[in-house]
Amino acid sequence: METEEELTFSLKDAHITEVGMEGTLPGGASYEISLPETWNVLPVKVLVVYAHGYVDVTKTVDLPADKIQGIEIKDILLNGIDYMGQTLPVGYASTSYRANGLVVLDAVEDILQLRSLIAAFFDQSDYDAPSAVILAGVSEGGLITVLTIEQNPGLFDAAIATCCPIGNFYDQLQYYGDAHVLFKYFFGPSFGGINIGSPKGVSKNTMLAWENGDLPMYLAAALQDDYLNNGGNKIRQFIACANIPVNMGVQPPEDVIRSIIEVLRFPVMATNDAIMRLRGNPYNNKYPPIQYEGSDDDRKLNLTIERVYRQTWEQAKEEINRYETTGLLYTPLLSMHTEFDHVALFSHQAEYAEKVGANPLFIPVPVWGRYGHCTFTVSEISEAIGTLLSGMP
User: Fold this and answer.
1) How big, in percent rounded to 5, are the helix, strand and coil portions of the chain?
2) Is residue 96 helix, strand or coil?
3) What Å distances lie between residue 366 and 21, 256, 298, 350, 376, CA to CA?
4) Residue whose C-alpha is closest to residue 172's, from 331, 67, 278
């Protein structure tokens, strides 16, 4: 955490907006603090610190502009949530983190720096201190949120973690690796002359082809061809073996295709960064050999599918322990998760509940029957914040 001198310097060099502040944290991440114009006269002053989700390493590091139902989260909060039958404007703060990719551990430090800066901001400005500061994270940001409050009890008044891998992070990485090798088995390694790589590594050209849209376009074409000319048989086998929660009998083909491509984004765009940050290759389907089920010929599948193991796996698995949650909660935590989340599996919520045990500070909110990753509504976010506020003294 930064020193008082560093905090003073950060505040002095910050750009003061009409109602808030923006600048750079000591670790190099950008940040912003935005308050409703009516902040000082609000009966309840709530500040939400937003921890954004995974951003591809090829993209520019920038402050998030995430949306719910087409509206930026920042605007949703500043314009007001529905609380006890009235509209309550809510303050917003966020950070870009210092880098993109699997930046979980550094991002926790960035959140801590931002929290210190928020305290200094209210101490040195004419704005009243918040009644409650809530840390809210989505996807990778949800994992960042949970690790932050577990390791720093009392720093936030409450937390919200949505659609995030808080149950078993190692299993989440295996899920992406399995999807990678299984997709190659059923559909081939190359599309439009572009090789999709392997859990062992992905070429820069492949990542560039994903970023410019060429590779997703070719993948979509291959999936559409399977629907049109094969009745979706390869897709059916792939999602069964990879345990991807999509339903070909319920969802239209375009939704199934989009979900599969959203899953494949991580094997293509995150593999190299994960290997680097985890100090080894975290994927292993070779020792012991994973036995996949759900294809038309499981014996052939398990005999011929790509098997991956690197000697650095043990080292990576040890490093992954730093990303695993403990379930030791001293801060109220509300977890929202859609039942059919294809990116971060719904099972994480139940796995985290097992870690927590009977601790009443954990509030699981399953969104039953819904497909998609973080497909929440504005009203559900309002309800989540309201639930936490109603439980505060």
Assistant:
1) 45, 20, 40
2) strand
3) 35, 22, 33, 9, 11
4) 278
pLDDT in tens, 191-211: 999 999 999 999 999 999 999
In a 3-state reduction of DSSP, which class is residue 384? helix
* Domain 4-167+326-390 annotated CATH 3.40.50.1820: yes
Question: Tokens 């009203």 correspond to what residue?
Answer: 379
Whether 14 has a pLDDT exceeding 60, the answer reads: no
pLDDT band for position 393 (cuts 50, 70, 90): confident
Q: How far apart are CA 210 and CA 264, in angstroms?
A: 10
pLDDT in tens, 274-294: 999 999 999 999 999 999 999
Q: What mean pLDDT is reported for the chain?
A: 94
Separation CA 377–CA 156 (nearest Å): 24
Reply yes or no on whether the pLDDT at 65 is more than 70: yes
Instruction: Write the DSSP assignment of 57-71 as a string of letters.
Output: TTSPP-----EETTE
Per DSSP, helices labelled H in the chain are: 4-13, 73-79, 104-123, 140-151, 169-187, 204-211, 214-230, 233-242, 253-277, 298-304, 313-320, 347-356, 378-390
- Over the stretch 103-152, which tens digit does the pLDDT of each residue have? 999 999 999 999 999 999 999 999 999 999 999 999 999 999 999 999 99
Query: Do residues 148 and 112 lie in contact, with contact meaning Cβ atoms separated by under 8 Å?
Result: yes
| Nearest-angstrom CA–CA distance, 339 and 328 | 24
What DSSP designation does 346 have?
Answer: T
For residues 123 and 79, is the Cβ–Cβ distance under 8 A? no
Identify the band that residue 5 occupies on the pLDDT scale cut at 50, 70 and 90: very low
**Sign of the torsion formed by the C-alpha atoms of 186, 167, 154 and 74:** positive
| Domain limits, the chain | 4-167+326-390, 169-319
